[in-house]
From TrEMBL:
<comment type="similarity">
    <text>Belongs to the HUS1 family.</text>
</comment>
<dbReference type="GO" id="GO:0005730">
    <property type="term" value="C:nucleolus"/>
</dbReference>
<dbReference type="GO" id="GO:0035861">
    <property type="term" value="C:site of double-strand break"/>
</dbReference>
<keyword id="KW-0539">Nucleus</keyword>
<dbReference type="GO" id="GO:0031573">
    <property type="term" value="P:mitotic intra-S DNA damage checkpoint signaling"/>
</dbReference>
<dbReference type="GO" id="GO:0030896">
    <property type="term" value="C:checkpoint clamp complex"/>
</dbReference>
<dbReference type="Pfam" id="PF04005">
    <property type="entry name" value="Hus1"/>
</dbReference>
<dbReference type="GO" id="GO:0006289">
    <property type="term" value="P:nucleotide-excision repair"/>
</dbReference>
<dbReference type="InterPro" id="IPR007150">
    <property type="entry name" value="HUS1/Mec3"/>
</dbReference>
<dbReference type="GO" id="GO:0000724">
    <property type="term" value="P:double-strand break repair via homologous recombination"/>
</dbReference>
<dbReference type="GO" id="GO:0044778">
    <property type="term" value="P:meiotic DNA integrity checkpoint signaling"/>
</dbReference>
<dbReference type="InterPro" id="IPR016580">
    <property type="entry name" value="HUS1"/>
</dbReference>
<dbReference type="GO" id="GO:0033314">
    <property type="term" value="P:mitotic DNA replication checkpoint signaling"/>
</dbReference>
<dbReference type="GO" id="GO:0000723">
    <property type="term" value="P:telomere maintenance"/>
</dbReference>
<protein>
    <recommendedName>
        <fullName>Checkpoint protein</fullName>
    </recommendedName>
</protein>
């Protein structure tokens, strides 16, 4: 199997300043799934517990001169340490900025290689960054796992397809920072958070203990998918009562999640999305999807 490409200036900016810092907050290890048309970062997708994260890019959004080949329909996947990947990208940017000049300036090549590390008898796989300047080149090797087998890639692709099955109703969250600040305060109250989302455009989050109930409601949010008109007789009810009545009518869904996991999912604001939507999938998962306008 072979993979080689040049990261564009826009691709470097997306990874270094936005998406890799956000992925680094999700967890130490992620899978990088490369296909003929996409580069996809996948966190925790093969594990049913905890926060799952997907960042999918068309190859043109990150690379030019993109070349990939494998006996598995030109699909390659492997596990990689996000912090090491981020460090390599940042270091390459620094080198390009300091020494880049001439017709070859700012050419950052990325490729899969096998090398024999010191004190080892077997070659190991690496994702290599080569920063080419006018008179010199700097090479950085990021260790990766053994590439996934055909069966493992199929398992990963199946999990990706399931995860990308959008909920029937999505509501837009206008300010992830505001929601995150509220959830941070909830951490000191309890461990489990009740989240309900209605077809009216309401997002209701609440945490309860024997001593206290703390909640917040975001109303009249933009809705994508199945929508409904809120009954006029519910207007004077409390947020909790409106949410319960909407669930009983089938106009809302509710799910209970870990406050810790919910807070971690909100770290996606580091990617500076143009829009973010919450929904509840049929499998009972709380779903956060964010969009980035193409430049």
């Amino acid at each position: 199997m072979k993979f080689k490409a040049f990261l564009t200036e826009h691709g470097v900016s997306l990874l270094e300043r936005r998406f890799l810092p956000a992925l680094d907050k999700m967890g130490k290890i992620c899978h990088l799934f490369l296909t003929r048309d996409h580069a996809i970062f996948l966190h925790n997708l093969l594990n049913g517990d905890g926060v799952q994260c997907i960042a999918q890019f068309r190859k043109e959004a990150l690379f030019d001169d993109y070349r990939i080949s494998s006996q598995n329909e030109d699909r390659i996947a492997f596990a990689i340490d996000v912090s090491l990947l981020l460090r390599a990208v940042r270091s390459s940017v620094s080198i390009c900025t300091e020494f880049g000049n001439g017709p070859s300036a700012n050419r950052l090549q990325i490729k899969l290689v096998k090398k024999l590390p010191p004190n080892c008898t077997q070659p190991m796989p690496f994702l290599t960054f080569e920063t080419k300047g006018y008179k010199s080149a700097v090479i950085q090797d990021v260790p990766i796992s053994k590439p996934l087998s055909r069966t493992q890639v199929l398992e990963l692709q199946t999990a990706l397809d399931i995860a990308q099955d959008l909920p029937q109703t999505l509501v837009q969250v206008p300010d992830l920072n505001q929601l995150q600040n509220f959830v941070e305060r909830m951490k000191h109250v309890g461990d489990l958070l009740n989240v309900s989302i209605s077809k009216y455009g309401d997002l209701h989050v609440q945490i309860s203990t024997t001593l206290i109930t703390l909640g917040a409601e975001f109303c009249k949010l933009l809705v994508i998918g199945e929508q409904a008109e809120a009954p006029s007789e519910d207007r004077n009810l409390s947020a909790q009562s409106r949410s319960e009545r909407a669930i009983s009518r089938g106009d809302a869904q509710s799910v209970q999640v870990s406050v810790k996991h919910f807070s971690r999912s909100l770290q996606c604001h580091l990617a500076k999305p143009d829009c973010a939507f919450y929904g509840i999938a049929l499998q009972g998962f709380l779903y956060l999807t964010q969009g980035q306008a193409e430049s």
